[in-house]
């Protein structure tokens, strides 16, 4: 049976942020925690060893695979910052067009630093992602 690798943990968010080696990435991480907390309305929680997630929802696919995931989140990786935002494809394309310098991934968006993107677009992207997940998975 498949075991989820990324689950919510009791690890300390601040302790994790303080372990980020790059001073600039650490500063961006603190700013992103503030942005995601304010826009999503959820406190930050660690998911796995390196994802800072906000809120949670339970999903179940037609295949029977199910689990829990953060509604939105991000991870300050060594190479870049991964933003985990989910909307429908039309809305995603609009946000990505207006976001600024980034690389789209299948389930995330990669940025090098916060100043590379437009914060107001990120705010809307987070807000729409929260609404999309809540609507799709009928948050309890």
CATH class: Alpha Beta
What name does CATH use for the topology? Aspartate Aminotransferase, domain 1
Give the SSE order as H and E letters.
HHEEEEEEHEEH
The overall average pLDDT, rounded, is 93
CATH architecture, please? Answer: Alpha-Beta Complex
Shape: globular
Indicate the structural class: alpha+beta
Number of β-strand runs = 8
Proportion in β-strands? 15-25%
Question: Key terms for this structure?
Answer:
140 residues, alpha+beta, Aspartate Aminotransferase, domain 1, 6-stranded antiparallel sheet, two-stranded antiparallel ribbon, 4 helices, 8 strands, 21% strand
Protein model, in words:
The protein is α+β, with helices and mostly antiparallel strands and 140 residues long. The chain has a single domain, classed as Alpha-Beta Complex (Aspartate Aminotransferase, domain 1). It has four helices and eight strands. The protein has helices at 13-18, 23-40, 89-99, 119-137, and strands at residues 44-47, 51-54, 57-60, 66-69, 72-76, 81-84, 103-104, 109-111. The strands form two sheets. It has a six-stranded antiparallel sheet with strand order 1-2-5-6-8-7. A two-stranded antiparallel sheet has the order 3-4. Strand 5 and strand 6 form a beta hairpin. Helix 3 (89-99) runs antiparallel to helix 4. It is globular. The mean pLDDT is 93.
């Amino acid at each position: 049976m498949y075991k989820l690798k990324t689950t919510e943990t009791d690890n300390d968010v601040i302790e994790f942020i303080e372990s980020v080696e790059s001073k600039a990435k650490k500063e961006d991480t603190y700013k992103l925690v503030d942005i995601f907390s304010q826009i999503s309305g959820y406190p930050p929680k660690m998911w796995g060893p390196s994802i800072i997630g906000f809120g949670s929802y339970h999903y179940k696919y037609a295949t029977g695979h199910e689990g829990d995931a953060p509604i939105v989140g991000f991870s300050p990786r060594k190479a870049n910052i991964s933003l985990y935002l989910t909307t429908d494809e039309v809305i995603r394309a609009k946000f990505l067009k207006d976001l600024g310098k980034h690389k789209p991934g299948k389930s995330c968006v990669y940025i090098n630093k916060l100043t590379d993107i437009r914060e107001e677009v990120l705010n809307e992207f987070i807000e729409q992602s929260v609404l999309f997940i809540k609507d799709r998975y009928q948050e309890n």
